[in-house]
Write a structure and sequence with these properties.
Elements: E1 5-6, H1 7-16, H2 20-32, E2 37-38, H3 74-101, H4 107-133, H5 146-153, H6 158-170, H7 172-186, H8 190-221, H9 225-235, H10 247-252, H11 257-266
Parallel strand pairs: 1-2
Length: 268
């Protein structure tokens, strides 16, 4: 019998996989077969080249050069769905990266992020299938790389990663998803509305994972979580948190009323 593979090493191998369907399948299999792996939270793993594994397409362009997306034509809906699918593909990579990269965290940290990766894989699959029904495929439109750019900036600091990727970049999806659902509904695309409902519900939980571990890191280090995140955001040039905010979703995801009040008052 072969010895069990370390879970974090296995997550890195999946992260390196460039083919989206294979990455999705391997991610979900890794989550479903946890018992076949050990977990060494202190294992130091050398970072290989080629992170993250991604296909040759979509071509990555600056955000301002990404294609315009309108929900009121078939091509426009496909472009919008493609942009969301690209976010979900990056989210798979981000969650896997958190699993392998950061040492010395509680076991629950690695299990939380592996579960997130598995759920992001489902989101990507649902979006890809619907995109195919519109005659397009993932890779057919240009995309930008903002999520992974922030991952690289926070590669050496788990607190910064938790503060900026789930709490700022991914949490923005909580704010904009209802408006996107309205656009798809007006265009008669009920399947997109259904998929976005699944994603929104899961993403509340994913942002909550980021909030949980950000606050855990702050408590460990004796920092005030209510204000330390602002300093990290400034240091790493994170996007501003601008209203309107989906306050109910953000509260469910673990943001405090004080945080929401401060972000709203600072931008009015």
């Amino acid at each position: 019998m072969q010895p069990a593979t370390d879970l974090r090493t296995a997550a890195l191998a999946v992260l390196l996989e460039p083919d989206p369907p294979k990455k999705v399948s391997a991610t979900r299999a890794l989550w479903e077969h946890l018992s076949q792996h050990t977990l060494n939270t202190e294992l130091q793993i050398a970072e290989p080249r080629g992170l993250p594994g991604r296909p040759e397409r979509p071509f990555l362009v600056p955000p301002q050069q990404a294609p315009l997306r309108s929900a009121f034509s078939t091509k426009g809906r496909a472009a919008l769905l493609h942009a969301i699918a690209h976010i979900e593909f990056n989210a798979i990579n981000l969650a896997l990266d958190a699993v392998w990269r950061f040492t010395g965290m509680p076991a629950e940290f690695y299990l939380d992020w592996l579960r997130v990766a598995s759920e992001e894989s489902l989101h990507f699959t649902l979006l890809s299938e619907h995109l195919n029904s519109l005659g397009q495929a993932y890779g057919d439109f240009d995309a930008h790389n903002g999520l992974w750019d922030m991952a690289e900036r926070t590669a050496d600091d788990v607190t910064a990663r938790m503060a900026l990727v789930p709490r700022i970049l991914e949490a923005r999806g909580l704010d904009v998803t209802p408006a996107m659902q309205n656009k798809f509904a007006q265009a008669g695309d009920t399947r997109s509305v259904e998929i976005l409902s699944i994603i929104l519900e899961d993403e509340i939980g994913h942002v909550a994972v980021g909030n949980r571990w950000y606050r855990w890191c702050c408590e460990r280090d004796g920092r005030d979580p209510e204000h330390y995140g602002d300093a990290i955001a400034k240091q790493h040039r994170a996007p501003r948190i601008n209203p309107p905010l989906n306050e109910s979703a953000r509260l469910a995801a673990g943001f405090t009323p004080a945080e929401l009040a401060r972000w709203t008052s600072d931008r009015t």
